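Q: Got a minute? One more chain.
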Amino acid sequence: MKYIYFLITVFFISFIASIINPKEAFTCFLEIIPAIIGFLILAFTFQKFRFTNFTYTLILVHCIILFIGGHYTYAEVPLFDYIKEVFHQSRNNYDKVGHFAQGLVPAMIIRELFIRKNVISNKSFFNFIIVSICVAISAAYEFIEWFVSLATGDGGDAFLGTQGYVWDTQSDMLFATIGAIVGLIAFSKIQDKQIQKISF
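A: Always. Here it is, folded:
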């Protein structure tokens, strides 16, 4: 439990830092609200289903990515402005980090749920189904961004974050897909080791 308390502490420190003098208050709210909702869901379900520490750590990393994007807006994160200048990129690509995590972290969450709840007995399509779900999540988030932008006009432009890139939506979903695949390849064995330590 000590490690869980550590993760919670880091979460709240990051959250508070993100809402102190953000670049755009409305955009900050839109970007960080998924992290807050996620935290509440995990808190309310903790006694019934506790994820491995590894999965919780990945979730925290994703939340921090959201907090940073919320504080600065995804188009104006300073480090990625610097990277943009150094590598002569046409845009600030921090949002691609966010969408990569949007695929990787849900993939590991879904994978742990599937294994521990024995959702899929036939493992032949196990990874395919996980990646497909992550692509669906990414597409649903793009729908939300589109709706918010239409509903709020200029106020939602920073949330949409296309930066004039016509293929932004498609590339966002591609990065989420890559993130899900990378997560399954890179972290499955680590997650399996932690799952084996849990009494089902």
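A: The first helix runs from residue 2 to 19.
Q: Perfect, thanks.
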